[in-house]
Amino acid sequence: MIEVRNLTKRYGNKLAVDNISFSVDKGEILGFLGPNGAGKSTTMNILTGYLSSTDGQALIDGIDILEDPVRAKKLIGYLPEQPPLYMDMTVMEYLKFVYRLKKCKLPIISHLNEICRLVKIEEVKNRLIRNLSKGYKQRVGVAQALVGNPPVLILDEPTVGLDPKQILEIRTLIKKLGKNHTVILSSHILPEVQAVCDKIVIINRGKIAADDSTESLSQHMDGNSRLIIRCEGKPDEVVKALNGLSGLESIRINKENVEPGVSEYYINTKEGTDLRRDVSKRLSSRGYTIVMMKSGELTLEEIFLKITTGDIYGKVDDDTVIQGKKKGGRK
Ligand code: ADP
Ligand code: MG
Questions:
Q1: Quick one: what percent of the chain has pLDDT higher than 90?
Q2: Is 188 exposed, middle or buried (0-12, 13-18, 19+ CB in 10 A)?
Q3: Nearest atom, ligand 1, residue 203 CA
Q4: Domain boundary among 165, 197, 218
Q5: DSSP string over 47-72
Q6: Nearest-ligand number for the alpha carbon of 11
Q7: Domain shared by 44 and 62, yes or no
Q8: 79 Cα: distance to centroid of ligand 2 (angstroms)
Q9: Is residue 327 part of a domain?
Q10: How far is the CA of 99 from the centre of ligand 1 (A)?
Q11: What's residue 308's pLDDT?
């Protein structure tokens, strides 16, 4: 349904999107995941015909967005990062305005009422947009994307700035819309795309770092786990004491001084191993007292690093110890 081929976008000298390709099948919800500045909005603006690409192609249902923008745009409902809302209109006035703008042919009143029902804004239909909460404004943004009943929805960070309850509501709505639309949803929040999407494309610095089903990416991400401990004793000796524990992959010492006489360690463990008890027993039997221990989930940055370099630390500094051996020098 959506096909992106070797898309590249430069802003002057700045390469914002670097030769990316991916596709979305009919009825799929694709999560477009990446940190700020990764190139998500740029890609979405190209897909929706708001921006031209420097190179490459974007096809919506086989139609090239550059060759036939009018036909391609008819297939897309777009919620940009900043929804184009008119604050001085009521919700209904605004939706009618969008209806005319899109030259929609569906029966106006029943079509717009149906959208309001679907996104749950019936009770604010006659209120000025200016007076709506951020959550309602965002739903009005989704509503304008749905005018004309386009089969494809492109939603740019639809939950940014919402409170946790509103986030859940928007996620539920997107899942519902996914039942009869093809959806691309961008986000910089991993759990969000994991919760909503069938497939995830990870973009980092304009390049695709991963493209996989949510299921297999989640397994990949859960494969390594991390333990963070704070322990008394000299760092070198503590690391030595842990050396040889089965399931241990690497230990990194946090250089920051956390408390007098106490150091912090990031312990990276192998697939599915829970080393909490072994670490605790080993250290206490050698006379080192653990003053804090927690399981640390990988951050989005670490996941990128893991996917792109195979190591969650990316650049490994001299303090990283792999099974007792210093691993310095690798860059
Ligand atoms: P994201 O949506 O993932 O946060 P963007 O697509 O907005 O990323 O931006 C990608 C990169 O392109 C960033 O480095 C950003 O600073 C740059 N960029 C975006 N828009 C412009 C522009 N109009 N002119 C110059 N650089 C831009
Ligand atoms: Mg953006």
A1: 67
A2: middle
A3: 3
A4: 218
A5: HTTSS--SEEEEEETTEETTTSHHHH
A6: 1
A7: yes
A8: 12
A9: no
A10: 30
A11: 60
CATH number of the domain to which 234 belongs:
3.30.70.1340
The Cα 120–Cα 196 span in angstroms is: 19
Here the CATH number for the domain that contains residue 214 is: 3.40.50.300
pLDDT tens-place string over residues 120-155: 999 999 999 999 999 999 999 999 999 999 999 999
Residue 139 Cα, ligand 2 centroid: separation in angstroms? 19
Q: What global pTM score does this model have?
A: 0.77
Q: Is the CB of 34 under 6 A from ligand 1?
A: yes
Q: Is the pLDDT of residue 291 over 60?
A: yes
Ligand 1 atom nearest to CA at 34: 3
What mean pLDDT is predicted for residues 64-88?
Answer: 94
Q: Is the CB of 11 under 6 A from ligand 1?
A: yes
Confidence category of residue 218, pLDDT binned at 50, 70, 90: low
DSSP labels for 67-108? TSHHHHHHTEEEE-SS----TTSBHHHHHHHHHHHTT--S-H
Domain count, the chain: 2
The amino acid present at 163, given as its one-letter code, is: D
* CA of 44, closest atom in ligand 1: 6
The boundaries of the domain holding residue 33 are: 2-218
